[in-house]
Amino acid sequence: MDVALVHWPAEAERLERLRARHEPRLVVVEEGPPPATEDWLEDWLRTPVDDDEIRVRLETLRARARRRPGEVALEDGVLRAGSQVVVLAPIQARLAAVLLECQDAVVSRDVLLRRGWPHEKPKDRNVLDVHLARLRRLIAPTGLQIHTVHRRGYLLRIGEAGITA
Question: Model's pTM, two decimal places?
């Protein structure tokens, strides 16, 4: 995971683009007050810059980007988790949406069937299992995990190490 080095205030527009893409960045403040942020993928330091301090802050931002659970979004069939992007087929996107809405809670097979196939329930019981197996494989690199909860349903969790970069 690369961390962008941004000179403030000269590269203010670039900083906004990096923020919009949720990319980690280290802001080097050359004059004036530092930019306000609560985003933990951003840190700042003032010039003159000490090499050891830059190295430590870059390592910290890289580690945060690899572990951060907060940035998971699904929009128009595109799942974004940390810096990972996964394009999902419509059924997988609908299933992922339900699981994300109920993150860390068990979602029953019935709810998944109703939301995955809103117009008609599939006749074959295994259809849900096949789509969830595909979804598991697709989202595995993001650190998201779908667990089977025996006789109850499925549970979406962020992996032990959080979202990977």
Answer: 0.56
